[in-house]
Amino acid sequence: MPEIMNVKEMVAYQQGAVVSKTLVEKETGTVTLFAFDVGQSLSEHTAPFDALAQVTEGRAEILIAGIPHLVGEGEMLVMPANKSHALKALTPFKMMLTMIRSQGKQPIK
Phi then psi for 41, rounded to 5 degrees? Predict the structure, then answer.
């Protein structure tokens, strides 16, 4: 039976940490929730597939190929495949990250 879930309540903040919870893990993609304490970050890296970051709470700076993007609650940003990206929480910050493992069409701009 399908279950209705509250995305904001499914992952909790921990002081000085980044917490993640994988909701879907399939060969074709993943959906992962993240909670970042203020000032926590993900170091610069690349991924072979596009990733969609949907902000559910707080604010963060996401660098894509060295260009900063400020994102807040209710906003989303596509991090293109094979472009370096990094993230820093400006406030306590939660997001849902969806990665589809496909070489299909380019993301909507």
Answer: -150, 165
Token representation of residue 23? 């909701």
88 forms beta bridges with: 41, 61
Q: How many helices (H) and strands (E) does the chain have?
A: 0, 9
pLDDT digits (tens, 9 = 90+) for 63-103: 999 999 999 999 999 999 999 999 999 999 999 999 988 76
Compute CA distances 72 → 2, 19, 25, 55, 109, whole Å.
Answer: 29, 18, 26, 6, 18
Alpha carbon distance 4, 29 (integer Å)? 21
May I ask the CATH class of domain 18-98? mainly beta
Q: Please state the domain extents for the chain.
A: 18-98
pTM above 0.85, yes or no: yes
Q: Which residues contact 80 (CB under 8 A, 6 or more apart)?
A: 50, 64, 107
